[in-house]
Design a protein that fits this description.
This protein has 300 residues and is an alpha/beta fold. The chain has twelve helices and eight strands. The chain is 45% helix and 12% strand. The protein has a single domain, classed as TIM Barrel (Alpha-Beta Barrel). Strands 1-2-3-4-5-6-7-8 form an eight-stranded parallel barrel, surrounded by seven helices. Helix 8 links the parallel strand 7 and strand 8. Helix 9 packs antiparallel against helix 10 and helix 11 crosses helix 12.
Length: 300
């Protein structure tokens, strides 16, 4: 299995002025993110507005981004769904595009039992040779993937990790302690990255790394090398930006930030809308307090 690294960016999906996927800009953004600290990219996750992308758009996006970055970084395809068969088929098709792994979100809306969650993920994983990362985000899916279920799923060879956005540190600690050796636990919330590293987590699947990837990477490297005071200082410095990027539903704020900085990614697709003037001002003022790591030369 290709190493996924400690810092993965949950990449936005750029749209053009007509609201269509801007594949050229997606490739530019992917390369810029890898040049500014990211080890890999999650494409068509929550931040990539996966619910509004067609299967055809997703598959083309996977292929285009992977062709653009080559071996410079890993590409993780968001192929999860509340429909097991649909997720299975998309995962199998995504594998043909050359991606390095897939991200499987907890099924939303239909509220399965823990046994249903286990069988859902097992069924998709066993239909593909791709390494699979589970994605637990109960604030969006309602259903929570319990620690015991994640630990049980970690015994399946190609289920290699979990993106934990539950903000439940007790649950995350149980997973880290109980999962098979080598199982990767990623923070799904930027603000939880340092606490999860302290529990033995592997890294973060980040939104803020669109802007401050080198600084997030430095924070993690400091912590992992024993420089805990330096890591804590960077964590405190970055927290206001991390929090600002979630004042309303992600990816609305990060798209506004990128557009303001001169890297056009378009408006979000309905049912998401642009920020109102109050929150636009908040994002724009917050950006003034930070050095932006995204390469200027890469901006369109």
């Amino acid at each position: 299995m290709k190493k996924f690294g400690h810092l993965l960016t949950a990449m936005v999906t750029p749209f053009n002025t007509d609201g269509k996927v801007d594949y050229l800009q997606a490739k530019k953004l992917a390369k810029a993110l890898l040049d500014s600290g990211s080890d890999g990219l999650v494409v068509s996750g929550t931040t990539g507005e996966c619910p509004t992308l067609s299967q055809e758009e997703k598959l083309q996006l996977f292929a285009e981004v992977k062709s653009a970055v080559g071996n410079q970084g890993t590409v993780i395809a968001g192929t999860g769904s509340y429909n097991t068969q649909e997720g299975l088929e998309l995962t199998k098709e995504a594998e043909k595009t050359g991606v390095d792994g897939c991200l499987l979100v907890v099924p939303y809306y239909n509220r399965p039992t823990q046994e249903g969650l286990f069988q859902h993920f097992m069924t998709i994983a066993q239909a593909s040779s791709l390494p699979c990362i589970l994605y637990n985000v109960p604030s969006r899916t309602v259903a929570n993937l319990a620690a015991e279920t994640t630990i049980r799923l970690s015994q399946i060879d190609n289920i290699v990790g979990v993106k934990e956005a539950s903000a439940n540190l007790d649950q995350i600690a149980k997973i880290i302690e109980g999962a098979r050796e080598g199982f990767l636990v990623y923070s799904g919330n930027d603000s939880d990255t340092l606490p999860i590293l302290a529990l033995g987590g592997h890294g973060v699947i980040s939104v803020a790394s669109h802007l401050v990837g080198l600084q997030i990477k430095q924070m993690m490297e400091d912590f992992l090398s024993g420089k805990t005071k330096e890591a804590a200082a960077l964590h405190h410095t970055l927290l206001p930006l991390m929090n600002a990027l979630f004042v309303v539903s992600n990816p609305i704020p990060i798209k506004h930030a990128l557009n303001c900085l001169g890297f056009p990614v378009g408006k979000p697709r309905l049912p998401l809308t642009e920020l109102d003037d109050k929150f636009k001002a908040l994002i724009e003022q917050t950006l003034k307090n930070y050095k932006i790591d995204l390469p200027i030369a890469a901006r369109a």
